[in-house]
Structures are given as C-alpha cells and as structure tokens.
Amino acid sequence: MGTHIENLKKLVGEVYDLNAASSVLAWDQQVLMPPGGAEGRAAQLATLSSLAHTKFTSNELGEALDAAQGETDKLDADSDEARLVSVVRREYEKQRKVTAEWVAEYSRATSLAHQTWQKAKAESDFGSFAPKLKEIFQLRRDYADFFKPYDHVYDPLLDDFEPGMKAADVQAIFDDLRTHQVALVQAIADAGPPDDSMLHLHYPEADQWAFGEEVVRQFGYDFDRGRQDKSAHPFTTSFGIDDVRITTRFLEDYLPSALFATLHEAGHAMYEQGVKPELARTPLADGSSLAIHESQSRLWENLVGRSWPFWVRFYGRLQEVFPSQLGQVSLDDFYHAVNKVEPSLIRVEADEATYNLHIMLRFELEKALMEDNLPVDDLPTIWNDKMQEYLGITPPDDAKGVLQDVHWSAGLVGYFPTYALGNLVACQWWELIGDAIPDLEKQIEAGQFDELLAWLRTNIHQHGRKFKPTELIERITGEGLSAEPYLRYLRTKFGEIYGLS
Ligand code: ZN
Prior knowledge:
Elements: H1 3-31, H2 38-56, H3 59-72, H4 80-97, H5 100-123, H6 126-145, H7 155-161, H8 167-191, H9 205-219, E1 228-230, E2 236-238, E3 244-248, H10 256-273, H11 290-304, H12 308-321, H13 323-326, H14 331-338, H15 355-370, H16 379-391, H17 417-436, H18 440-445, H19 450-459, H20 469-477, H21 484-498
Parallel strand pairs: 1-3
Antiparallel strand pairs: 2-3
Bound molecules: zinc ion (ZN).
C-alpha cells in the first residue's frame, strides 16, 4: 500500500483516538460520574473536541489527503482506501467551510437554549423558550448558508445525518406514506386496544436485566467486546469496533421499557461490532448514516423482538422468570399486549404503527421553520392542530406537545426524519432476508439467529461507512428507498392482530 495512504491513516487514526476518548468520557458522564463532576467534564470534552477539530481541519491533513488521493485514483473506486479518501474528503471540506465564530456562537446558544428548554418544559411554558428557539433556527439557517448553493435550505442539515439525501426525497416518501398510515392507525383505533394490564405489574429490575441479556446474547451481541449498563436514557456508544457498549433503563412497573430498549440498542451495537477489522480506527468504522443505524436497531427490536415466532421461542422462558406475573397469561394475550397500538402524545413512547406520524409532524414543522415560513410563536398551535389531524388527539399542554423533545434545544435540526426512514429501510431489508432465508420464522422459533446476523454482517455491517445510505440501499435492494415494504408489513401484522379486512 502507498505510503501517502498510510500517512493519511495515521492522521485520521489520531483524530479517531481523540473522539473515542471523548466517547469514553461521555459514557462515564451518563453512567457513573457523580453530579459534582459536570463542570470539569464539560471542560475536558470541550478540549478534546477542539483538539480533534483542529487536527482534522488542518492544512497538514489536507495535504495528506491530496497526496493519498494521488494513490487511490489508481485503485478500484470501491476499495477501502479509495472510499476512505472520499469520506475524509467530504468531511474535511464540510468542516472547513464552517467558521470558528459560528461554531463558538452555536455552542454558546445551544447550551443556554438547553437550560431554558428544561425549565420551560418543567413549567410547560413555550413562551419562555421561543426567543431561544428563534435564535437556534437563525443559526441553523446561517449554517446552511455555508453550503450554498443548495436546492433547499434544509438539505445541508439533513446531509449531516443522511449523506446525500435531500429534503425533497424525504418529503416525497412521507407524502406517499402519510395518508396510508393515518388510515391504518384510525382503523386500529376503531377496533379498540387489547388488554395490556399484565405488563404494568411489578417486575423486579434484576430479573428484567438477566432476561434482556440472555436474549441479546442469543442474538449475537458479543459481551467480550461490549457490556450493558444503566443510564437515564438508553444509548449505544463505540470506543472502537472491539468495545461497543449499550445502556438501558428499568421501569419496575412496565415490563416492555427496558426489554425493548435492550434489544434496540443491541441492534445498534451489533452493527458496529460487525464492521470489518480492516476499517478499524478510521472514519469508516461507523454506521453508514443514522437511518441505516436505526434500520438495525428497529429490525432487532420490532421485526424480530415483537414478532410471533420470537415470542413462541421466548415466552415460556419469560414465564419462568416471572411466574406470578405471567404464569396465567396466554402467549396470544401477551403477544397482543406487546403489540398494542394506540395514538399517544409522546413520541418516545409511541408504538410501531403510530411512531412515524410523530416524525412527519416534526419534519414538516422544522422544514417550515428553516424556510422562515412559520412564525416560532405560532408553533404550539400548529403542533396541536397537526397532532389532531394525524393522530386524532390534542396535547393538554406544551410540555406534552411542542416542548417534549430535546432535539431542537440542542440545535439538532434534520435529525428527526432518520428515525422514520430507519423503520422503512428495516422493512426493505426484512423482505430481502425473507427471500434469502426461507425458513427464517422457524429459525427464530428455535432461537437461531446466526443466519440472520450473517446476512446483516455480509450485506451491511462489514462495510461500515464506506457507502452512503442511498448507495447502500441501492446496492442491496436494487432499488431506492421505499415505503412500500413498511406499509405491507404494518398492514399484514396489525391487520391480523386487530382483525382488519
Ligand atoms: Zn436507535
């Protein structure tokens, strides 16, 4: 291999190390750190991220990149080296366009906005948060302007999470999906919810923990290269492909919360554990995009973990762990309970069928805010109107409405669509997997997940971040991103559960 490529790898490897060290500190902050450590930790994280940024955007790295490109231009465009150079080039050019003044201003504004949002949410007072939100969206428009010309002011933001994807692509997909999904949710609501009272009994934390780990071990999450801890909000973090950790949280009076969070995070973690070793310690040792990442977590959480064959396998075991709570509950009743669909106010608690409607609402609002077509002061009213239109319910206050999510206060605009896209992509994979592994359901009933995991490893995981999301989807499915498999999945599954014709 050329010496210039080796030199580039050395430089990006050092940046990778700095970022991994930041991740360790951030993991510690959420899992172990005492509250008193907050101020010192913020300083440590700021120092590390500024070092990483300076190093990554340096002239030295730019020169190394040019030299390495001289070598990779002679290689196959899909080789690891050529892809490394193109991914680093993309990131390098993006980061160099943003001024240091903007970064400092954005960091100051978001940290203040976050505090204001917490207080506003606690007091359900949107008015006190509105000025900060105006400032954030102005800063976000300024950010987009670094990347002019663009088709839409939303595009540069979306591109940070879904490289290559445009607002118009998301809009087209959502427009296609919305009426179908609203109609389906309405039909389900008319059929009435199943009884899920058995899920709200007392379930001791230690037993929940043991059962969840038993399941993800069988999925193939490697505990020699990972571990699970507790945190306020479940997440996955990677310090390298051989140390990918998950966290969960336990509600002793609601069984599904920790279990499905564990399956979800293990899905993310197995993706990162499956990146091929050749890509370690480079920017390619990562997921293709947030939507592709979410396609992995949702696949294990919902398509596997909320499926009938899965519970045929695991329900007896769960009854053994919780005999007094579930001993008298049939498999059928339990399966219906964990698949309960009910329009609700809070996105993070939404079920499989209603979840995307929450996302579409946010996407439409943040797109209009970016266009400067929606006065921030009108946001609560429009939020509530859309909730009524899509889900048939109206939030009683701003805390359960427009103030519920942390994202905008943190400056994360363009992030929400990736959740919904992940659901769609997961179903695209699922149809292909069904063709490739005809007895998949039998395998799941037998607790065998190795062929499923091998398919994901071969087609998706091993490539890490080599391919952009749309490119990866096309390589694997031969088509573009589509909502059809997702709609087929919802209609089949919930049609059966709710007896819809
Ligand atoms: Zn996730």
